[in-house]
Each structure stands twice: as C-alpha cells, then as structure tokens.
Amino acid sequence: MAATWVIALILVATTVNVVANTNDLGVNWGTLTSHPIDPKVVVQLLKDNGFKKVKLFDSDPPMAGFLAGTGIEVTLGIPNDQLEFLSIDYEYAKEWVKENCTLHLGHGGVDIKYVAVGNEPFLTSYKGRFTKTAFPAMKNIQRALNEEGVGKKIKAVMPLNADVYESKSDKPSDGVFRGDIRDLMNKIVRFLMDNNSPFVVNIYPFLSLYLNSDFPSDFAFFDGGYAIQDKNVQYTNVFEANFDTLVYALKNAGTPNLSIIVGEIGWPTDGHKAANKANAKKFYDGLFRVLASDKGTPLRPGEIQVYLFGLFDEDTKSIEPGNFERHWGIFDFDGKPKFAMDMSGNGAHKELVGAKGVNYLPKQWCVLASYSTDQNLIDDQTSWACSKSDCTALQDGASCSDLDPKRKTSYAFNSYYQMNDQHEEACDFEGLGMIVKQNPSTESCKFSTQIEVDGATRLSFAYGAIASFISSITLFNLL
Ligand SMILES: *[C@@H]1O[C@H](CO)[C@@H](O)[C@H](O)[C@H]1NC(C)=O
Ligand SMILES: *[C@@H]1O[C@H](CO)[C@@H](O)[C@H](O)[C@H]1NC(C)=O
Which domains does the chain have, with CATH numbers? Predict the structure, then answer.
C-alpha cells in the first residue's frame, strides 16, 4: 500500500512539473537574409515580446553569445551539411560540443536546452541523402554531451517534417512512420525515449492547402466549418489531426509516451494566393486560442509546446518549396510587426513590439526610367534583376502580381538596388534604371527601402567562422 502511494505521488509531482514548465512560447530565428538585423536588437525584440525560447538553425557563437544571460532558452542547430562528418567520427562530435556548446554554458552563459541535429533531414525531396548520417550524428552528439557532463540538461533532438509519418486513410488512427524510413524511425524514437528527449516535429497546415487544391480550406484554420470523424473522435482542424497522426505513429513504434514539441508552425504572408496577412492572422488567432486553452489534442491532452516559424522574412531563402518561402516572418524583414497578434490567446487587438533602433537607407528607389521600345532588353534586365534579388511578391496571387508589366520591371530593379545597398551602379540596367525620391508603392504592393547593416553585424554574419573563433577566445578568457 505504502509503495503504491509513493508511486502515485511521484506521478502527480511529475505531471505538475511538466505543466508548469511548458507554458512559454518559442520562436525560430532564421538568418537567410541579405540584411540581417543587429543581433542585439533582435534579442531586445525577443524580450519585449516575452519570448522565452528561441531556436536557431546554426550554432554560430556570435548569435548565441547575444543570448547569454538573458534567461531565454536556446536550441542550437546543426545544418544538414555537417551531419556527415559528425556521423563518421566521434572525435568531431566531441570537438563540436566543446566549441559550440560547453564553452558557452556556466554562470551568466547561454541557456542551451537542445541541440537540433539536422533540419528535416528525411524530407522526401532530399531523396535519402541524409538517412545514413543523421541518426549516427545525433547519437555522437548526445554521447559527447553526456561525456562533457551536460547530457542531463542538454538533449540532442532531430527536427523532422510531418512527412516522416503518414496515414493511408487520412485518419489519425492509421498513423504510421513512412515506409522507406520506418525501421530507422523506430530506432530513433527508442533512442529519444531512452534519453528522455522529445520528438520535434514541424507541422504546416498552410502546406496542406498549398500542395492540394482540393484540401478543405476551413480545415487549415481553427474556426470550424469542416471536420473529420475518426472512430469516436472529431477533428475540426488539420493541426490536431496531424499531431495525433504522429501520436499513433509513436504508439505503433512502441513509444506511446514520447513527448512531442512542435519545432515549427506558422503561416506565410506573401508569394501565393493563400499566403496573405488576413489568413496568417486568422491562423495565429486560432492557434494561440488552442494553445492558451491548454486542452491539447484529443490524444494528448495538456499543454502543447511550440516554436513559431519564424521571426523575420528572409529574402535569400531557397524558393524551391514555393514563392511563399521568403515570407514566413511574424515580423517584416526590418523587424516591423506585420499584423495584430495576441499571443496570450485572448483575441485582443494587440500589436507585437517591433525592433528598436533599426536604421534605414535613404528614402529612394530604383525604377524603370525610359520606356525603351526594346522589349527584349527590358525583359532580359528584369529577369536578371529577379535572379539576383527577390521577386516572389510579383508571382501569381502575390501582393504585387497586379502591377502592370512596366511597374513589375520597376519592382525587380528596386529589389536588386535595395539588396545592393542602393549603390548607384546597382540601378543602371543598361541605361534603363533611374533613381527616384517618390515612393512607387501601391496600396497592396510595397517597394521597400532596405535597412542599414553596421560593420559588426555584417562581420559576425559574413565571417561566422572567424568571429566564432574570436568569441571562443573571449569566452575562454572569461571562464
Ligand atoms: C561549430 O559550429 C560552427 C557553425 O555551424 C561550425 O562551422 C563549426 O565547425 C563548429 N565547430 C566544430 C569544432 O565542429
Ligand atoms: C505510458 O504511460 C502510461 C501512463 O503513465 C503507462 O501506464 C504506460 O505503461 C506507459 N507505456 C510505456 C510503453 O511506457
């Protein structure tokens, strides 16, 4: 009898503990942009908006360094291109952990919680490129963390896209890991379970809509209007249905109790007809309502931990997945909030706090000057400008798709000119370009002026390796 009591008490204590720790919203901080915002300014923005957790896609110590002493919990990232060497040799993993992890811990250091090994390494579009290396790399990193004596606090995880599981019937209860990687996934989830580490999954209702024109639009949001029935459970949004498909897949893999973190979730605002601010606001309002209710999903009641994707628009991201890919920010490229967003889930009309102390280049733009009759030249120059800048807003259904052809050329010229810091030569275009002081923006289509990037910020992003070396020396001296 007494023994039973002890167990019951421990169970209660654990449950309470879990609930108390998970109430904080996280966000992904990506930096694939031509004009990165000063990391000091970004850290202030994270604090001003109450973010308690941030996930990075790399581990450049300069960036992580700015998070030291802030109380913000950090997930470091290891890009896919580093998986191979980390998988081959445990000594590399040890060096990695020493240089990029343990050096930054300690009093007043960086509060590192997870090391994300790879980013969606099993995406079907990678055609198996990382299936041999990702898991060995993760094991090596965890072993190195253990050996450094920090393995209890810092866990190796692997952010995976929701495409690692599937359901033949589209019902959650038929959820299983994808056939081609099922054995591998079974091993990975067992490893995570044994290490007390969570399963990190990226879930994108927008992509359900984007990839399938028959997908019921209401189901991508949280306002009802469409439902699926799965045995005695009703799902009214694809997020919960998708999440519970994973719960079933975990059950089938023999790890029904593995905890789950949503590593990325969000909605883009340009580059496709369904990617706009109105839809993004609708999606986030619903998501925050679900999160605030602490109801969880039908199969996983309780709080859900999420990291929003992402912080800013990133104008140099690959658009292989689609033109929306550069428009995932809850803030614009310059740190301005895009739309009202109440992260507490109360549905109040609240603006996020924008970036403070961002300076802009002069208010001037590059446009098509002479309406040259050489249409071939205009077309060539337009495509050339687009190939070296960002024209995703000009594509079908996007915010600038309604411009007439000449204005479209102006948009392309300006994009290139701004990306190149308004250098005069960047507005030549074989004599077609002209710099103007009057803003050519229309109601829906914004011609931006870029932000100033100071030398230190430029250096820490451009020369990450050198800067990381310098910062390790500095940190080393401090310790
Ligand atoms: C630390 O991380 C950086 C950035 O990803 C990487 O370039 C570097 O090789 C890592 N250090 C070691 C010792 O692996
Ligand atoms: C999962 O958790 C439940 C309740 O806490 C427990 O009864 C069950 O044995 C666990 N299952 C496994 C496979 O650990």
Answer: 4-326 (3.20.20.80), 365-436 (1.20.58.1040)
